[in-house]
Amino acid sequence: MGEGKIPEDSKEKASGNKPENIETDKERKSQENRSQENSPDPPTGENVHLLPLLTVNFIGTLGFSIVLPFLVFLVNRLGGNAFIYGLASSMYPVFQLIGAPILGRWSDIYGRKKILLLSQLGTLLSWIIFLAALFLPVSTLFKVDSGVLGAFVFTLPLAVLFFARALDGLTGGNVSVANAYLADITEEKDRNRNFGKMSISSNLGFIVGPALAGLLSITAYGEAAPVLGAVVISLIGTALIVFYIPENKECSLEGPADSEDIRKVFGYEIKECRTAREAGKPSFREVLKLPNIPYMLGLYFLIFLGFNIFYTAFPLHAIAALDWGIAEMGIYFTVLSALLIIVQGSILPGLSKRYSDASLIIVGSLMLGTNFLLLIPGDLFLTYLATGFFALGDGLMWPSFLSLLSKIAGKNYQGTIQGFASSFGGLASITGLILGGLLYELFAGRSFLLAGMVIYIVFLLNFRLRQFEKELKTEKRI
């Protein structure tokens, strides 16, 4: 990331063109203070100033991942089956599809912090409702026995659980707003590296969450303990946003900054800039007319579709083919996330300096598709071998994809584009989560074949991204 240093010619402008003899002491002192503020931050400053945002991202992921190992068991205990598990999982993206674009636009207008706080409060409330559902009587609302959907009983706790996930999705703009925030405070040349840091913080949450769930679930409080943990974690995340995340709006670090309009955000000197209200809010049709954005949104959809078929089918597969319980599920997700951190923390930074975003996206998608095919046999060794392909594939592809998307989106509408991207991801999640449950109900482990084919299609489509990068370089030269 940049060091918040204003170019020398801007410093000369900041010094003013007034003759020395008419400059007041007050003006001299003001200029000296600005000069001190414009001096480079120490090398450790970057990590310190990013830490609050990374911590909030970590806590958001931790609160979500803490229920991953036992959610499928909980749904089954409350009367559901594979289809209901997929449907319950899809409630979040269904309502995120509605909420994310609105929250993205609001973040462009009212600032990232306010919308991050709104999202976090929604998450906190949803986990409180989720916790309450565990203590409701398991009374039957209706029963279904279908050749396609299978047999299940829809109970009162399941209905409340569905509502909790819907509320969390409706206010679930955390990721898109955090990505827009990071794009605001990061120069283009550093975005790949810093989106990698965001991915690392997310994967740390995926390490700690399932491991913590495994430990808490064996206590006397059973399933309530991990959910209570999610409530506490969400409360901590809310406090961090209130006290440690500075407010900022859509800004650009590029070009010389006006000396009268300097402010510090996370230790970077960022010029005061237009809000989205001044620039105009693009409608969905206008977004689709932006160069290369529709193609990127299409890729976003396909990537999420493949991922979410996996996320629904794998827990069902682990129970049926590998005979796993909550503890084994927690270990698997912990190992997977640990490998992702190694890739994004040690391998990605070096490769991103040598290779373009498009190249890393292409290689990563090929590895990710192979991971899904290794899961089909239901063999323990191949399952853990697949985690290596998953970590390399996702670890190289996804931060690079987000980096390229932010560059193509441009300066003015980061929040809006990220919000629409989240909605496309949400639509894919709805499709993938429901389809994953149905496919596993019908085809068992062979359902991973579809996930693999979707990502292989992404691999082929990714070659066009090289042309997008060439266009970006041409625009810069102009």
Task: Identify low-pLDDT runs.
Answer: 1-24, 31-48, 250-279
Number of strands: 4
Q: What class, by secondary structure content?
A: mainly alpha
State mean pLDDT (0 to 100 scale). 75
Count helical runs.
Answer: 19
Order of helices and strands: HHHHHHEEHHHHEEHHHHHHHHH
Q: Whole-Å distance between the termini?
A: 24 Å
Our estimate of the beta-strand percent is under 5%
Sheet with most strands: 2 strands, antiparallel
What share of the residues lie within helices? over 70%
Q: What is the CA-based Rg, rounded?
A: 24 Å
Principal-axis shape equals globular
- Which strand order do you get reading across the main beta sheet? 1-2
Please characterize this protein's 3D structure.
The chain has 478 residues and is mainly α. Helix content is 73%, strand content 4%. It has 19 helices and four strands. It has a two-stranded antiparallel ribbon with strand order 1-2. The protein is globular, with a radius of gyration of 24 Å.
Pick out its properties.
478 residues; mainly alpha; two-stranded antiparallel ribbon; 19 helices; globular; disordered N terminus
